[in-house]
Structures are given as C-alpha cells and as structure tokens.
Amino acid sequence: MRNALAQLVNLQPDKIRCIHVEGSGCYGHNGADDAGADAALLAMGLPGRPVRVQWMREQEHSWEPYGSAMLTHARAALDQQGWIVAWDYTVRSSTHSKRPGGAGDLMPAWHRENPIAQPAPKPLPLPEGGGHRNALPLYQIRNARILYDFVPAMPLRVSALRSLGAYMNIFSIESFMDELAQASETDPIDFRLRHLDDPRARDVITAAAERFGWSRFPRKQGSGRGFAFARYKNLGAYAAVAVEVGLEHESGRVRLVRAAAAVDSGQAVNPDGIRNQIEGGILQSASWTLYESVTFDRMRITSRDWSSYPILRFSAVPDTVEVDVIDRPGQPFLGTGEAAQGPTAAAIANAVADAAGVRLRELPLTAQRVKAAIGI
What we know:
It is built from 9 helices and 9 strands. By secondary structure, the chain is of the alpha/beta class.
C-alpha cells in the first residue's frame, strides 16, 4: 500500500507511513485501499492539515471491487460399474486479485487529471490459482481434462473474494458428483469414497457423515440433505460438510436447518480456533449461496445497501453447526480459513435438489429461482 501511494502522489516510499487499524474483517479486497488513496490525495492538496476519509455504505458498495463472475461446464462418463471413466471440466473467469501492487490498482488513480492506467489483468498461477483454484477434482479419475478460459476484461471492477475461484469450482464439482452418484444409483457418500484413495480425505467424509447422522436422516416433506467435500487448493485443509435444509414450496424459501462438518488441518494447535473458522465459513457461505448477488445496470451498481444486497439474517442462522476437528499430531499445519466455503455451497445445493426434486445450477439459490425451478 505504501509503495502504491508513493507512486500515486509522487513521493518516495520513506516519506509515507501507513498505520494499520484493527477493524472488521474484509474477506478479500474491499474499498479500504481506495479510501486511503483518497486521503493521500486530499492530504497533498491540504498540506499541514489532518485529513480523515470515511466512505459511507452506499459509496463502498458502489465503488469497491467484487468477486469475478464465473461460468463452469462439466461433462463425465460412467462405466457399467458406476466408475467415472472420463471427466471434462471448463471454468471461465477473469482475474481474482487486483490488490495494490502499484498506483494503477487504486481507483482514485483512474480519476486524476493525469490518470494512471490500470495494469492488465493476469491469471494467478497454480498450484494455488485464481479462477481455476480447486478446478482439478481430488477424486481418482482415469481420464480428465480441465480447461481454464481466462477472460481479461470484465464490465465490473473485480478482485479477491474469500476463497477466490474455489467457491464456484467446488460448488460445481461437488454438485456434479451428486448427479453422477444419482446416475449410478449410488449413495452420494459411497460414490465419493469409491473414487478416493487419500485416507485423510476418506476420514473427514466419514466423520462428517457420522456427525450428521447421514444414514439415519428422516425423510419428510420439504426437507432435504446434502453433502460435499474438498481439500482447499488441493494442498490445504480437508473439509467435508453435511447439511439439512427446509424448503417452503409455496414461496421457494430455503432455510439451512443444521450443518455438521469435519476438518483435518494437520496438527491442531488451537482446536477451538479451527472450529470457529469452519463455523464462520459455513455461515458466510450460506449467505453467499442463498442470498448474495451484486446487481447493476449499464451505468452503475444498483445493490448499494443491505436492502438491495441481502445477507444472512439472525433469523435464518441454522439451529446447530457442529464441527469435528481431526487432529494429526506431528503433521504439517494446513491452514483452515477458507476450507468450508466451497463444500458448504455444494452441500446446500445438493440438499435443495434433494428437497425440491430438481437441480439448480445458478447462484445464489434465491427463493425466486427455487420457486421458478419447482414450477409453482
């Protein structure tokens, strides 16, 4: 940030001091850097005077960067025994990080009398990746092709949203795994275990299923169960999530009733901290998956407040969220912070499909979309 501001106001970096102030979480890239740039420009215009810049909610929603749009396409083939013998997956997206490297990544720099051009967007390299993060399934598949179609230009300003492309890719892959399990007339958990030889992956799946009571789930009208699994970035924490949803057929409203998860982050130094991360990730992902969507027209962002950009309310918080932490003493620390977002999205989608009898493939799973899908 200091280097970007130095370039913005034509000063040496040692002439600028940036002081971080603790505040609420960002979970990606918000408008704080741009507000800092505003403050720097104003300070240069008013030497010797203190300047404070505070964006209001509508200003931040109008100008901050958003998570990049994503489009996925999946095809697969099963043999007569129900094994996946071919897999073809494409993900299309733009860059997933435009954090300040130089002044060109700061929005106020584009609006100066002598504007600084934005740098050309670039894909983030593997193994962590950006739009193609978690695009490669962890399952054992004989023939697989994964393509990343990088889109340089987007109509909206985009950057990092928590978990980057993993959220959409895991949603897509794990939704598709349920469809393949149904095509092979196999239980979704058994189908996943059949295609996994990683013992730690198998352990988190089994633990989450047992914690949820998968085999004892009571079938009732308007209720559905769903499951999903992933290893974040295919090199981080293993996480599996099972959920129960309630579906109001007349309104299309979906409520996350309960969730059970298991996570393996290596040696668990702070098990309660791990549980907090997974619990928070499940709630955040539920909000993304059921409610959150940026709206815009040809001129501007139109979702500029909490009415036009709805989020999960306290009344919609699940009754219970349970997390099993699988401790691996002596094993490397894998990190936990973004492990739950993708599996939760897919588990909710799979539970909605179970309750509604129809598959939804576009996020978020709003009441309007669910109602239209079930034809009421």
